[in-house]
Write a structure and sequence with these properties.
The chain is mainly alpha-helical. It has 10 helices and no strands.
């Protein structure tokens, strides 16, 4: 019998909490069941399996991260928006490492759940909206989005792995990286579309 009050949402949150504690790749259905005080089989009434659970964690994380970024950037433009956006991204990665990981790796997500999820769409809107403040249009917008994502994710991934061994504090480098990104976005090079590579 399924424990009263057990829902897909509760299973997802339990999985997300566990992912933050032990790492997304170490989450198992058995661990989630133990955390909720139920038998493993009870979970399958609410999620189809581990990959489905990971997809749900990714959607939850996308929603949470997007809300934090939206709150941080509200009413801001230019460098203020860029810094607020980047800091909210990094803070989420620090506070929720397992959830954050789920948003950065390929995971099969139920198309019905994905269609209902506002987080991923809202994240794209926020990112493109911030970059339009720099006067960018396609294809430069997409290139700039990829640059920002690569920079933010690369930095927080290296930081989490202990990859910054130099005595200079990572925070100082983070601030300088954002200064450099702002300068680049204000002086974005003209598109070379159609030119031979």
């Amino acid at each position: 019998m399924v424990r009263a009050g057990l829902t897909a949402e509760r299973v997802t949150v339990a999985g997300a909490e566990l992912a933050d504690e032990v790492g997304l790749d170490r989450v198992t259905m058995s661990q989630v069941a133990r955390r909720l005080g139920v038998k493993d089989a009870s979970l399958y009434t609410h999620v189809r399996g581990l990959e489905d659970l990971r997809g749900r964690i990714a959607l939850l994380a996308a929603d949470e991260k997007t809300v934090r970024i939206a709150e941080a950037t509200a009413g801001r433009a230019g460098k203020d928006a860029l810094v607020a956006f980047a800091n909210a991204w990094r803070e989420y990665a620090h506070r929720h490492p397992g959830r954050y990981t789920s948003t950065q790796i390929p995971i099969e997500i139920d198309p019905e759940l994905a269609a209902k999820a506002a987080g991923p769409r809202r994240a794209v809107e926020l990112t493109y909206g911030m970059l339009r403040g720099y006067g960018l249009a396609e294809p430069d917008l997409t290139d700039a989005v990829r640059l920002l994502r690569s920079t933010f994710h690369g930095f927080v991934a290296l930081e989490a792995a202990g990859g910054f061994g130099h005595e200079r504090p990572p925070q100082d480098s983070w601030v300088r990286a954002l200064d450099a990104l702002h300068h680049l976005l204000e002086h974005w090079p003209p598109s070379r579309e159609g030119e031979p590579s």
